[in-house]
Amino acid sequence: MVKELFRPAGKEEAVALLTEHQGKAKVLAGGTDLVVLLRAGKVTPEIVVSLNRIDELRSLSFNPDDGLRIGALVTHSELIENDDVRARYPVLVETGKTIAGPPVRNAASVAGNLCHAAPSADFAPPFLALDASVVLFGPGGERTVPLNEFFLGPNQTALAGDEILTEIRVPTPTEGSGANYQKLGIRSAMEIAMVGVAASMTVNNETCSMVRVALGAVAPTPFLVKSAAAAVEGNAPSAEVFARAGEAAAAESKPIDDIRASGTYRRKMVAVLTRRALAQASSR
Amino acid sequence: MKGEAGMECTLNVNGRTHTLLVRPDETLLDALRDRLHLTGTKEGCGEGDCGACTLQVDGRAVNACLLLAADAEGRDIRTVEGLVQDGDLNPVQEAFVDSGGIQCGFCIPGMIMSADALLRSNPDPSDQEIQEALAGNLCRCTGYIKIFQSVRAAAEAMAGSK
Pick from A50, A100, A190: which is nearest to B71 by CB? Predict the structure, then answer.
């Protein structure tokens, strides 16, 4: 039973509350994951610490030197509608549009999608493919963690009990680079991914470089598939090369059977979606 | 097990200020319906999947079942009751009535709040944009054709009256 809701005005105050109530507190941003869990009794914190009065966490900005900086409270809708994101990171726009529906996107924070760390979190593969990192703030101050070190297990991240994520950072895309996210499902909205594949690469002089392939919903965490990227790196973009990468990605995936799909089907679809994501990324 | 309604919060709903006592984990949906008796906003699934509880916060369509009432302080909350102007239905409400967009009516306040939010930011939406704007609102009465037609009629009525 929640005994108290705190609404601190600054991140230091928020962290102090988390330190004081460590183990008994949950952090609230958009609420589209936490409030569902609270109402279902699946989490039972005594204390909820809302971040929603901390205005510095609403910032969303881009500049060519620092790249894209997404504050912890920036919503899915705000990200999708931002001109810099649309121009430079179209993969984030197309990913955001696959998530839930407008009322959820208007409330849900992008950072929350990563912090809740569902194995199928749709923003995880694209941010992994874009080489993003996250800034964590705790009693000891700030630390930056590469996103590929952030996911530790289903709903488990590198966040300590007294830390909050304050910002997602994405490097400026290199000239000639493109990225794509493929989400497998049976509906066109309000759906959790059966399989998610993101690919990113730079193509110059008919050669693929800086290739990254990330998978979601087919393992305990979203993850980068090094073998798939290696199959493409240094080669000219072609259907054959992408098909080999698809096979490599499928071999490394560990999908389970669940109500949405069987593991066997998911593994086959990893190969298909990896080919498609690579083809789309190479043509941007 | 529910805790005490011991947290005071001030909510700005449909342009009026209300101070009330809520539980810390009480949703905006429950506070509006049970304490302010604004029952136009409905509970369908209670977990953000059906959209029956859609209302507008700071002009954006959101699910009231996913917001904590005490965390909605300081924000501009508008429910379907707040669309009525001087006793008249607003153009979106009127269009749903005139176009036969309403069957049992349960999903309709949520549909109207999503449609109204759409038309405020995009007065001339394509058919695709109307469908996408309502993607978070489910109708179980066979909906959706007349609902989309109602939104189209509302857009035309609002354009025509300028």
Answer: A50
Element (H, E) at A57: none
The model's confidence at residue B2, banded by pLDDT at 50, 70 and 90, is low
Cα–Cα distance between A14 and A11 in angstroms, integer?
A: 5
| Structure confidence by residue, pLDDT tens digits, A62-121 | 999 999 999 999 999 999 999 999 999 999 999 999 999 999 999 999 999 999 999 999
> Is B120 an 8 Å CB contact of chain A?
no
Q: Per-residue pLDDT averaged across A211-227, rounded?
A: 98
Please indicate whether, in this complex, the C-beta atoms of B114 and A102 are within 8 angstroms of each other.
yes
pLDDT tens, residue by residue, B106-154: 999 999 999 999 999 999 999 999 999 999 999 999 879 999 999 999 9
Which residue(s) pair with A182 in the sheet? A197
Q: Where are the alpha helices (DSSP H) in chain A?
A: 11-20, 34-40, 76-81, 83-88, 90-97, 102-107, 110-116, 124-129, 226-232, 239-252, 263-282
The per-residue pLDDT of chain A, averaged, comes to 97
What are the pLDDT digits (tens) for B67-91? Answer: 999 999 999 999 999 999 899 999 9
| Dist CA A13 CA A137 (whole Å) | 11
In angstroms, what is the C-alpha Rg of chain A?
19
Residue identified by tokens 């949703």 is: B27
Tell me which chain A residue has its CA closest to the CA of residue B72.
Answer: A52
Tokens for A78, please give them: 């705000």
Count Cα neighbours of B149 within 13 Å in the Cβ-side half-sphere: 10
- CA-based nearest residue in chain B for residue A101: B136
What is the ipTM score, two decimals? 0.96
| pLDDT for B162 | 57
Report the length, in residues, of chain B.
Answer: 162
Contacts (Cβ under 8 Å, ≥6 apart) of A198: A91, A95, A125, A126, A128, A129, A179, A180, A181, A182, A212, A213, A214, A216, A277
CB contact under 8 A, A7 and B46: no
